[in-house]
Recover the amino acids of this structure.
């Protein structure tokens, strides 16, 4: 079964994004089944019903998400999902099921669910429902007309969150009140058209994160201070700060315009001097000076307005810090509610007692088992001193020169000359032949080796 995660890219046919499930081009038999109408009731064949619904419902929602549109119409979906000249015959049933599950909602019902004063002017930008739609609802007909606008609920919530983050990260968030026109310019990305922008504001209003007010013919929007905070109604302070901000912007634009005019007068004076038109150059310089004086006056007013706004912003910051301190003190009091000095001292005494007990147990275990033998350390040390003294009194009989002792006790090795060895050898040879030597062999003189 197809799911949005298994989308495959195929040549663009009906789907503008060119992203359709694999079987769209590969399985003719299955696509013929999917393009056929639903049975009148799921009980007739629940398997076929669930198979078709499991294919089309995720595809409709993913198509809306890929296109970035929160508003759907049956006619637009039929055009988007055309295949070889055929349109899906069961899309109306799919939309009815999504409406029943709450994943889609009629645009008119969504607008009516928001209890807000600014919906009165918001209705003007939406098409009113035809009379036949109203009659069909009154009579209990749940069919979805081809032109009726439906809202993708989850995608609308995501866009509302995106708009809120976009505002929080922009310079407009310096004050919670902002002009609707400025906010609309900021939200061009997530809200490509005016109707989507108003739907997103309605969703934020439903979540109590914005409120809208019309002031002197201009609509202003107030945001909640934090992502989890609820917006408070627009008060006189918010309106006054908004007017000061508008005055600051007006003065800044006026100063910029006058600066360009002064520069233009300076250039005209320079050209007149080059052309030899002294009077014209003087008039241009006088106009430049008058313009510069106006700029100085506007700068003074602008500094005053900016100073007031800075004080307001500082007071708001001080109030936030004060509220944070107050919340911290309250939390500290709550956490220290059951803690007293007496309880703390008692707890410390108990800990000290347990530590002393642990030290005693450790010392007892370190003593070990003596098997009933109790040795006196002083007596052992005295006995060791006596042994050392006896050892020092007995002299050791050691030779002065160990080498002489070694050679004295050893057997001397005689030295035999070569002539004696030859005579002895000759004697042995004669004895072997039965002859007696004519002279005695010389007596060997044995000399000790040194």
């Amino acid at each position: 079964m197809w799911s949005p995660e298994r989308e495959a890219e195929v040549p663009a046919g009906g789907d503008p994004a060119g992203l359709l499930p694999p079987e769209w081009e590969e399985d003719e038999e299955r696509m013929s089944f999917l393009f056929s109408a639903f049975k009148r009731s799921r009980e007739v064949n629940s398997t076929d019903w669930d198979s078709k619904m499991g294919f089309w419902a995720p595809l409709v929602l993913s198509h809306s998400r890929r296109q970035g549109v929160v508003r759907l119409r049956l006619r637009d979906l039929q055009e988007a999902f055309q295949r070889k000249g055929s349109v899906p015959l069961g899309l109306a049933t799919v939309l009815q099921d999504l409406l029943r599950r709450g994943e889609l909602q009629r645009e008119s019902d969504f607008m009516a669910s928001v209890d807000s004063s600014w919906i009165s002017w918001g209705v003007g930008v939406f098409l009113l429902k035809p009379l036949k739609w109203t009659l069909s609802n009154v009579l209990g007909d749940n069919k979805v007309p081809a032109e009726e606008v439906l809202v993708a609920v989850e995608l609308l919530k995501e866009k509302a969150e995106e708009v809120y983050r976009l505002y929080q990260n922009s310079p407009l968030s310096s004050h919670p009140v902002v002009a609707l026109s400025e906010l609309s310019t900021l939200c061009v990305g997530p809200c490509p058209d005016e109707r989507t922008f108003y739907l997103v504001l309605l969703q934020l209003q439903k979540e109590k994160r914005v409120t809208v007010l019309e002031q002197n013919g201009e609509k202003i929007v107030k945001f909640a201070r934090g992502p989890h905070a609820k917006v408070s109604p627009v008060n006189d302070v918010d309106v006054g700060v908004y007017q000061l901000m508008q005055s600051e912007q007006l003065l800044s634009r006026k100063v910029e315009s006058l600066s360009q005019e002064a520069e233009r007068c300076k250039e005209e004076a320079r050209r007149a001097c080059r052309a030899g038109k002294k009077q014209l150059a003087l008039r241009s310089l006088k106009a430049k000076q008058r313009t510069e004086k106006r700029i100085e006056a506007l700068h003074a007013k602008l500094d005053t307005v900016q100073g007031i706004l800075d004080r307001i912003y500082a007071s708001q910051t001080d109030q936030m810090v004060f509220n944070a301190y107050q919340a911290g003190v309250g939390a500290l009091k709550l956490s220290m509610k059951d803690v007293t000095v007496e309880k703390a001292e008692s707890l410390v005494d108990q800990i000290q007692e347990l530590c002393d007990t642990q030290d005693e147990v450790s010392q007892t275990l370190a003593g070990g088992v003596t098997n009933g033998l109790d040795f006196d350390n002083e007596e052992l040390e005295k006995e060791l001193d006596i042994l050392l003294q006896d050892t020092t009194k007995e002299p050791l009989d050691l030779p002065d020169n160990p080498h002489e002792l070694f050679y004295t006790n050893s057997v001397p090795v005689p030295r035999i000359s070569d002539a004696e060895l030859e005579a002895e050898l000759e004697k042995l040879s004669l004895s072997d032949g039965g002859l007696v030597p004519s002279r005695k062999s010389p007596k060997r003189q044995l000399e000790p080796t040194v």
Observations:
- Residues 117-132+150-234 form a domain with the Arc Repressor Mutant, subunit A fold (CATH 1.10.10).
- Strands lie at 8-9, 19-20, 71-73, 104-106, 149-152, 177-179, 210-215, 218-223.
